[in-house]
Amino acid sequence: MTHEAPLSPETQLVHAGSDPGRQGGYVNPPVHRASTALYRDTAEMDASQADPLKRGTPVYGRFGTPTGRAFEEALTVLEGGHATVATCSGLAAITTAILAYVRAGDHILVSDSVYLPTRKFCDSLAALGVETEYYDPCATGAAIDALIRPRTRLLYLESPGSTTFEVQDIPAITEVCRARGVATIADNTWATPAFCRPLELGAGVDAVVHSATKYLTGHADSILGAIVCTQESYPLIRGAAIRLGQCAGADDLYLGLRGLRTLGPRLARHQEQALDLARWTAAQDGVASVLHPALPEDPGHTLWRRDFTGAAGLFGVELDPRFTKPAVEAMLNAFRIFGLGHSYGGYESLVVPADPAAGRLPGTWSGRGPLIRVHVGFESPADLREDLRTALKALHTA
């Protein structure tokens, strides 16, 4: 008996979720803008209602369309999961995944370095009787084990953190959580499945969330989220998405699927240009440190080398503590090519100021210099360096 060789990630990016046979022979699926599904008879209608979690069954547009299925199937293959649930935004993916697990009286552990809207949502869970405890993102298995209580239901992590870029020991954390019966969710937006697959690290997380708005779509023109599930977590998360009325728009799903096809070469370019600029920036006067796990001097570099196959185009630049807020604002206002704006993952370069100390655990960030977050796009590296050089001059002048 012969077995087909597994496809490489590069090939999967191009072909996953595509089936020209069910797409009229065309390479790309059509955009299905649909709400109502019609049935041949009552028997078919009853069958569709009997199992609303079944993928591919036409029930109602909110439950999925062929366009959504193509995107979900592709991302499932890329992450090595069982099934994917598409959502209307990255934050919707985060909140839906968390709400699928928590109940009144539960205790959850959340990485102290998570995306700020994630933190605000977790804080709001107190009104529902859920206690959130934030843990040091550099904590390993033993430290996590000490934090687990009898009512701990969930651990939520983001690696690297999207502002301060700490890399977490996912294998050690999942091993402890699996043994203690605690579910785990990982935000994989920074690395994408092209560079990291948390479902396969150690005991594996129970679900992976994405802001597909970022690298997966890659063109700064769509708002989209996704939750990639294991076989065990899928009914719970899919059921929560249905109850919460969660779904993604047809056009955004199509743009997400289109973005996946070029994710490989785009990320390669992001990685190359970001590392080049990060090294250059680290040597400039006024820069205290560069927070980028692919740099050998970064505290998370060893874990990054073990668990990741590449690095995204997003990193942090910590300035010397002597610089005041007006000086940093003068620097930000001096950029000509780097746009001053939130989000990342598109073709354009961006900068945004960050204040990690706001809301963080005492001592995990306090006393350090001003931080800016840099996303490196596809502009000329020489132009980007010159733009940053000009901005640093403005910083010193101010």
From TrEMBL:
<comment type="similarity">
    <text>Belongs to the trans-sulfuration enzymes family.</text>
</comment>
<dbReference type="GO" id="GO:0030170">
    <property type="term" value="F:pyridoxal phosphate binding"/>
</dbReference>
<keyword id="KW-0456">Lyase</keyword>
<dbReference type="GO" id="GO:0019450">
    <property type="term" value="P:L-cysteine catabolic process to pyruvate"/>
</dbReference>
<dbReference type="InterPro" id="IPR015421">
    <property type="entry name" value="PyrdxlP-dep_Trfase_major"/>
</dbReference>
<dbReference type="GO" id="GO:0018826">
    <property type="term" value="F:methionine gamma-lyase activity"/>
</dbReference>
<dbReference type="InterPro" id="IPR000277">
    <property type="entry name" value="Cys/Met-Metab_PyrdxlP-dep_enz"/>
</dbReference>
<dbReference type="GO" id="GO:0019346">
    <property type="term" value="P:transsulfuration"/>
</dbReference>
<keyword id="KW-0663">Pyridoxal phosphate</keyword>
<dbReference type="InterPro" id="IPR006233">
    <property type="entry name" value="Cys_b_lyase_bac"/>
</dbReference>
<dbReference type="GO" id="GO:0047982">
    <property type="term" value="F:homocysteine desulfhydrase activity"/>
</dbReference>
<feature type="region of interest" description="Disordered">
    <location>
        <begin position="1"/>
        <end position="30"/>
    </location>
</feature>
<dbReference type="InterPro" id="IPR015422">
    <property type="entry name" value="PyrdxlP-dep_Trfase_small"/>
</dbReference>
<dbReference type="Pfam" id="PF01053">
    <property type="entry name" value="Cys_Met_Meta_PP"/>
</dbReference>
<feature type="modified residue" description="N6-(pyridoxal phosphate)lysine">
    <location>
        <position position="214"/>
    </location>
</feature>
<dbReference type="GO" id="GO:0047804">
    <property type="term" value="F:cysteine-S-conjugate beta-lyase activity"/>
</dbReference>
<protein>
    <recommendedName>
        <fullName>homocysteine desulfhydrase</fullName>
        <ecNumber>4.4.1.2</ecNumber>
    </recommendedName>
</protein>
<dbReference type="InterPro" id="IPR015424">
    <property type="entry name" value="PyrdxlP-dep_Trfase"/>
</dbReference>
